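Figure caption, in words: inputs first, then the predicted bound structure.
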Amino acid sequence: MSADRPVLEIDNLQKYFTKKQSFLDTVLRRDPELVQAVDGISFDLDDNEVVGVIGESGCGKTTLLMTLLGLYEKSGGDVRLHGKSYDEFTKTEQREFYRSVQVIFQDPFDSLDPKKTVEQILRIPLKVHDMDDQDRRIREALEMAELRPPERYLDQYPDSLSGGEKQRVSIARALVLEPEVILADEPVSMLDVSTQASILKLLSNLIQEQDVSMIYISHDLSTVSYICDTINVMYLGRIVERAPTLELLQDPKHPYSQALINAIPVPNPHADRQRTQLEGSTPDPIGIGEGCRFRDRCPERMDVCEKTPAFLEVEPGRRTACHLHYDHEAYEERKEVVPSKEH
Ligand SMILES: Nc1ncnc2c1ncn2[C@@H]1O[C@H](COP(=O)(O)OP(=O)(O)O)[C@@H](O)[C@H]1O
Ligand code: SF4
Ligand SMILES: [Mg+2]
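Bound structure (adenosine-5'-diphosphate present):
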């Protein structure tokens, strides 16, 4: 393990599902179709960094998270913690992975056992990982999640808490094991707007004050841009653009990123940004062949878009997968068509 490597490396990760067959498919002996939900995703997560993944519903965000956690068996690629591949973990290292990588799920109403008190909910992971000093850890985690004073919450059941308090308990449950990485899957999307703001502020403070990094995934660009240092824009199982947050917001390069940003309401009606709506929705990632995956919805589509664009650096620290940003002569010389597997 190396100190200067990223905390987490996601390298060309793939997850294909086999589509459930209908009775007719079985009778006609049709080959099962592949759902290419995550198809060659790569990025690094550094110490104390917050990396975002943004994309419409169905683009593969939750599948990415479940696959990188090992909860779905990956179809290809690799996940490395401090340079060590998930595939090479010993039993002890795997346990350590599940201590140091924690998840906050989308639905606080669903992710807490209604029959357990807050104290019991927080004690379970501590017992699983055989941690010492459990009472102190539980109180500290509640404090960090701004559930104060902790005594007020210890004996409460989830049903007696508000949506925001429930999500704070989920955050405390993630923090109680002192993780290095938090994976947050749309953690505020089920909450009302004012609660969203306070939970986002809490997460942002935690990153600054604790030694923790985060992958934050959402369909909502405004929440992603509030908290993330870098944003990956995902479309149909692949990353189509990666950029530092401000640069992406000010100058999105990929037509899909442009459409997402143009769809955000403009507070000033006299502002010169045109507001456009992205037509259609993300199709299912089934039986996808060659070509840019966004081409059926792209206003800039060209003939060359029938070929899959590589994920190339367009400026220092910025990459896109779009033929608009290519040197096509160099591209032809490369004579290769690669998915988004370069960092
Ligand atoms: N268990 C599964 N079996 C088959 N297809 C799945 C399964 N889980 C997700 N999918 C499909 O994979 C794609 C990505 O889904 P998901 O990761 O849930 O997207 P997101 O979280 O971005 O909304 C969708 O087309 C979805 O229908
Ligand atoms: S590669 Fe072509 S179809 Fe795809 S986003 Fe770029 S211009 Fe549009
Ligand atoms: Mg999801």
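Residues 8-266+285-334 form a domain with the Rossmann fold fold (CATH 3.40.50.300).
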